[in-house]
Amino acid sequence: MWKTSADAPIKTYKLATVTYGTVSAPFLATRTLRALADEEKAEFPDAADVICNDSYMDDILSGVYIRGPELLKDLSASSYVFDKEFQDAPVKTLGMLWDPKVDCLTYKVKISDKVNFSKRDVLSEIARLYDPLGLIGPIVTKAKIFIQELWKIKLDWSEQLPPDAMEEWMNFYQKLAKVNNFKIPRCILLPATIRIEIHGFSDASERAYAAVVYIKCFNESGQSQTRLLYIKSRVAPLKTLTIPRLELSAALLLSILVKKVVPILQLSIHKIWMWTETQRLLQRG
User: Do 142 and 172 contact (CB within 8 A), yes or no?
Assistant: First the structure.
């Protein structure tokens, strides 16, 4: 409300957009999308489903392979074009890079020219390895193990790494640039897919344990294809645990991943397989 003078009538002003930068702005933005999806669900059911299930903050990450090209038309009804295929350079999507030319997820890791690192510097460099799906899990796991070794020697945050640790870190750090050459296919299904299976694997060592989830699909022509979906790894605790105990932890991690991944896919899964290389887990059960 506003008055130009003491005797002037009160004028009421109302914001027609979400104010950027306020504490409530993220909630209001997502709530607006939800309200729009609810209001237009009858006319645009597929688009409403994408907004409700495939959006994160102000990003919408979905595909038209299953839902059909008409989905883009629905989402573009407001004249905004959602199709990024025309772009030449990789597009940053949810913190990752997507190359629309080859339809692959890629990474961009920058290597500095530093020759001396402290524990704080090492943690800073490792934190830049943003990998929400764990697709470069083996690399990140090795970095986590190195950090654990630094904790064991009780190094201060600003203290330079000792010679042995510095040599090990530099050998690892200088090879990180090769991650930029990775190209991971985004599309996980074959054309005319008729059967989908989920295969999960778990394993453990004295240093770490991990679980990985794959999707395998079959089409009408008898072709099959397997794609990596998700990897999660954890460093073994400082307190020494037996290998069977770590393998049990890996199997538990795998079951958690599968329970998390399957509903997100929103696909008709025909069979789920979870594999482990040892029978000791069954014996412990």
Answer: yes
Alpha helices in 90-214 (DSSP H): 119-127, 137-152, 163-173
> In whole angstroms, what is the distance from residue 231 CA to residue 192 CA?
27
Report how far residue 196's alpha carbon sits from residue 222's, in angstroms, rounded to the nearest whole number: 13
What predicted TM-score, i.e. pTM, was given to this entire model? 0.77
pLDDT in tens, the chain (285 residues): 788 888 888 888 887 777 778 888 888 888 888 888 898 888 888 788 888 887 776 677 766 555 545 555 555 555 444 454 455 678 877 667 888 888 888 988 888 888 889 999 999 999 888 888 889 989 999 999 999 999 989 888 999 999 999 999 999 999 998 999 999 998 899 988 999 999 999 999 999 999 999 999 999 998 999 999 999 999 999 888 898 899 999 999 999 999 999 998 889 999 999 998 776 666 554
Alpha-carbon dihedral angle through residues 269, 275, 279, 285, given to the nearest 10 degrees = -50
- Radius of gyration of the chain, Cα coordinates, nearest whole angstrom: 25
The 271-276 sheet, strands edge to edge: 224-235, 208-219, 193-204, 271-276
- According to DSSP, residue 132 is labeled T
Task: Please report how many Cα atoms fall inside a 13 Å half-sphere around the Cα of residue 193, on the Cβ side.
Answer: 20
How far is 158 from 160, CA to CA, in rounded Å? 6
